[in-house]
Amino acid sequence: MPGKRSNRSKIHNFLCPSCQCRLWRLGNTKHHLFYTGVSEIKQNLQISKKKADMISRQGAYVDPTQWIEEFFCSQHGKMWLLVSKTANDRLISKPATPSDWQRSTGTLRPELSNPTVSEYTQRMSRRADIRLRP
Ligand SMILES: [Zn+2]
Question: Cα of 106 to ligand 1 centre, how many Å?
Answer without folding.
Answer: 24
